[in-house]
Amino acid sequence: MKRLFILLIALLFAMPLFAQEHQQDTTVKEPWYKRIFSRKTEIIHDTIYIFESECQDEDDLDEDEEGIHPRGGIPVPFDTLSTANKYQKVILFDNGSWLYLDIPKPDLPDFISNDHWMTDHVHAYYDVNVKELPEEVDLVLCDSVHGWHIPGFGYTTSTYKMRWGRQHQGIDIGIPIGEPIYAAFDGIVRVALPTKYTGGYGNVVVLRHANGLETYYAHLNQYIVNTDDIVKAGEIIGYCGTTGHSSGPHLHFETRYMGQSFDPERIFDFKNNTLRDTTFTLKKHYFSIYSHEGQSDNESKVASTKVAPKHVTYKVKKGDTLSKIAKKHGTTVSKICKLNGISSKKALKVGQKLIVK
Description:
The protein has three domains: 29-102, no CATH class; 110-303, Glucose Permease (Domain IIA) (Distorted Sandwich); 313-355, Membrane-bound Lytic Murein Transglycosylase D, Chain A. 18% of the residues lie in helices and 28% in strands. It has six helices and 24 strands. The chain is globular, with a radius of gyration of 31 Å. The N and C termini lie far apart (103 Å).
């Protein structure tokens, strides 16, 4: 019993020594990312560097200002990390140091968000009449500062035209669900809304650009930007889907000026995924659904004189079915489905507007 008591006393006195030895070992084996954030930081030229030593002499600082690490050799970057700020990255170096890399924000004038700035409606220019617009306007699409990007990579399934008796005011690009959708130009997000607020567009993003253009990205499976976000050309703003009035996964892409749509193929060559020119002359007669890329100027003017047919619409009421609506308006279910781009099996919602003739 006495021996056991002496052994316990000895262990009690020895425990601090074991704890100290263990602490020293863990300090040596501490992961590099914990060592980084536990070290003292030095700010040089507005860039944060983290060094192994707690203090440095002036000679070391002079060497570092010349791009030489105080331990000798030039640090080599080996990884880049994203931060909460999409315009700032963290670059990691092989010697345990790191620095912030600032990515330039698009330089956009304030006035583009001052006129007809509506964030809860897809279309903002309700009070603008096409007759009030100039005969033509030159739009700079890109330059040495502002770039461009194809909105999505796929094949064209439908163009800017009259389709099923109604105006199809954009271009459809067949893209698998979940594939990225890109901002066509630098701009500001005016609209980022889910299906329940947009009708046939489904999940939609609308970007406004400095030259007055707006671009629409519809039927998205998901959007990852918010209203008032500044985006760069080529930035992913969402992923392709089949929400809204859609018969399959695709991107519905529109180009509009002061709310008036025109053929997006006048700007982009979607077959070759290229921009047609850095500057685009937009003419008033382009706003007709019958005016499209490939026509001569005279052909476009003549086509624009055609008047698109006016449709009869019907608001769905409780208890309505497609067959009841068709019978009431002297038409067929298949015609209503064609006019609205829907399936005969699609469930109707109270308040939904349907083109019946």
